[in-house]
Amino acid sequence: MSTGHVLLGLLSRGQQHGYDLKAGHDALFPSARPMAYGQVYAALTRLRDRGLIEEAAVERAGGPERTTYRLTPAGRDELEVWMSAAEHPPSEVNNPLATKLNVALVAGGPDEGALFLRRQRSAHTARMRDHTQTKRAADATLTQVLAADYALSHLDADVRWIDDALARLGEITREVTP
Amino acid sequence: MSTGHVLLGLLSRGQQHGYDLKAGHDALFPSARPMAYGQVYAALTRLRDRGLIEEAAVERAGGPERTTYRLTPAGRDELEVWMSAAEHPPSEVNNPLATKLNVALVAGGPDEGALFLRRQRSAHTARMRDHTQTKRAADATLTQVLAADYALSHLDADVRWIDDALARLGEITREVTP
DNA sequence: ATCGACTATTCGCATAGTGAATAGTCTGTT
DNA sequence: AACAGACTATTCACTATGCGAATAGTCGAT
């Protein structure tokens, strides 16, 4: 529940209510998709149900009623555990390239597989050009540059995998379609 | 709906029922998490509601009743569209490292951020050693080798990003926590 | 005859996210 | 003074996806 953990992190700066948390998230992650309000309040409800946050106040101060939340000790623990735990990066389980390659092989055979790999390769290189341009833009923020670097290196990793798969396509086909 | 597309791909080999599809998936993706039955049948129902598959037969042949499904023309189209479309790889939106780094910075400051990056780096290098061993195992299948290669190159991409972020941590902190 | 294994499907529940709706208050305009 | 429109804050109804347990029939072995 990454959404929830981000909210816990934002709440560690002090008690806040949903509207502010949404704004805080969108400011902290400008390139990410803005959080929908429904998502924020649903996540807050779940966090409260799990005892990680609690209502700090319900007040009406020049506007609609607002419910302010704060971290509980359990929430602080949860945040700390999440921050100390290493993220597990995409493993084989969610390797979308291999998934699609295998489906292409069983559904259409080696030619279909090769077609997919080549198309995917050119789509990736096109995206890499875009990211390189983003990086080089004069007004790029550091966050944007880091985001582009991240995307570039992962796209590059994908392309190398694609080339490898293309080179061994015959072997792969034999292993996947018995 | 990747699950659905995989099922469409499996069905393109000919009509099958849910139980076989689950087995077919698990055989095609041995390292992926096995599909739960509930997941398979729910996905089949959705595909049928969308007109991508249809009931081919309902029979009882030495066992419980079984419903066999086959692709419709619309399903064949959908499969083809999915196979021709390039996969969008993880963009900045779901960069778990940057997410966690930012949360660490706002919740704990630069020291907390550096701690996370260093912990993450060593976790990654440990996993890289594991994958390298998997690759070198005498009985490794090609699928397993490719999976390990995929994981290794993405872990390597992450590590390079981490090193970059560590080097620029001061700048990042200033940009993220105003 | 009956116990357990296998085949096949269904059910209920939980999680996560989306867009629109609701409702109050404040500010500027005519 | 009235009212349009913007802003603050939350809720609702809906969709998608996934998981584990429950159900139910048949077959073979003891």
TrEMBL record, chains A, B:
The Transcription regulator PadR N-terminal domain, residue ranges: 7-80
Top-level taxon of the source organism: Bacteria
Pfam families associated with the record: PadR, Vir_act_alpha_C
Domain Transcription regulator PadR C-terminal residue range list: 97-169
InterPro entries cross-referenced by the UniProt entry: Tscrpt_reg_PadR_C, Tscrpt_reg_PadR_N, WH-like_DNA-bd_sf, WH_DNA-bd_sf
Protein name, UniProt field: PadR family transcriptional regulator
Organism for this UniProt entry: Nostocoides veronense
